[in-house]
Amino acid sequence: MSLAQPLDADPAPPAPTFESTDPATGAVVDVFPVHDVAAVGAAVERARTAAARWAALGFDGRRRRLAAYRGHLARRMHELADLVHRENGKPRADALLEITLAVDHLAWAGAHARKVLGPRRVSPGLLAANHAASVEYQPVGVVGVIGPWNYPVFTPMGSIAYALAAGNAVVFKPSEHTPAVGSWLAAAWRAAVPDVADVVQVVTGFGETGAALCRAGVGKLAFTGSAPTGRRVMAACAETLTPVLMELGGKDAMIVDDDADVAAAADAAVWGAMSNAGQTCIGIERVYATERVYDAFVAQVEAQVRDLRPGSDDAAAYGPMTMPTQADVVRRHVADAVAAGGRVLTGGTVDGRYVTPTVLLDVPETSAAVCEETFGPTITITRVRDAEEALERTNANAHGLAGAVFSRSRARAMDLARRMRTGMTSVNSVLTFASVPALPFGGVGESGFGRIHGADGLKEFTRAKAITRQRLPLPVDLMSFRRPAAAADTLARVMGLVHGRHR
Ligand code: NDP
Prior knowledge:
20% strand, binds NADPH dihydro-nicotinamide-adenine-dinucleotide phosphate, Aldehyde dehydrogenase, 22 strands, 3 domains, globular, Aldehyde Dehydrogenase, Chain A, domain 2, alpha/beta, single chain, Aldehyde Dehydrogenase, Chain A, domain 1, seven-stranded mixed sheet
């Protein structure tokens, strides 16, 4: 049975289709419709109708249904991991890891939505002391989610789980490289939550389908992908003043300080750079190691990558590049680094879609391998005077997604982490923040804006609603044409006494 979900019951001519293929074998995984403007509009309308019912269920009704969905996913993790393996190419174990993370985020979002978003009283202040004041966070209606292929479950779920828990319906456009996984997630929702099945819709196709979603009048568009596409998405959304969330690429750095546990830092750097074939937005792409630890660090990294091997079998460390064009980017970055005087310590070769674990040394900061997102199993290691120079170089990049600091000094590491110009930093580990559902996830600069995950991620898919309720009328109403002529002067005198003493 095809995973593709037919969108229209119309007897209109059948939509054009496209194939999703296994990057390791080229075998066809499934065939999907290319949804056009009309089909996307119809999906958004269905979601809009469902959104009203979903919002009316309230926090408890939604929490129960989100629990049913996560239970459904948790019971079928291996089935989904197998599909992710076939369509994206990553090892099944890595697919399982990303699915467990997504399930955990679903649990957190459902459990915390009421506390974060529900009505909360605030102080009315001096001027409105006779009023009760409250704030609550209301759903925006339908959230459009456009996702990439590298973490086809975890990444879109970072938007979908939090958007749903906040009371919205979702129309999800998966990457053209992972439509089967996206359709599986939507079909799972329909099976687990049949009474509001239309709350999650999926549309498939290429960039035009995503662009149609941007113009379909959704309440918010959550985009995860590259900065160039992000700019196009923002431009399309600007036409209808649709607000956007931008989760874009990164060029994450690791700082290895004088007092770091060098073996642990090397282990984390290798995993952070090579796992998922380096196709990780928060993957480590650059390392700055201080003079004192540089040689030991390089030796540890060299020893650790020696045993790594790409492949599509279960013993492989990572899989093929999901897109053939990504292998070309790696090739270009390695060639550029070598031409600029860099040295290939290990790897540097590309065989079809498989890239060997690549460690580059002495690469100038101006070279593409250091400046641009590579998105492959590569890493540059650069010797720096001290951690301050490392931080300076880390912060010189236009991206600002995440990063890591290795140091045994808690105070020093926390200081460096705070001053790193990124949305997220992990100390003495890599990528850990992504597995903490209570923490916000997102970047600065070219890495985008807005946050998924945590309380900020729930609020991201809402609009704040402010309400005041008069509790008792005052003898003098300042906002009335019937107020006494001297009322404003009296108020100004009181405010002058309260605030005027501050210098
Ligand atoms: P792209 O920017 O190429 O595509 C992202 C999504 O946008 C895809 O679904 C794509 O569809 C769609 N799209 C393409 N053109 C348009 C358009 N004109 N209008 C609307 N949608 C469009 O990114 P990749 O899929 O290659 O993903 C890799 C990038 O994502 C990397 O830069 C990575 O760092 C970043 N990323 C960021 C994350 C974060 O959380 N910050 C997490 C994961 C990845 P189609 O595939 O059909 O062309």
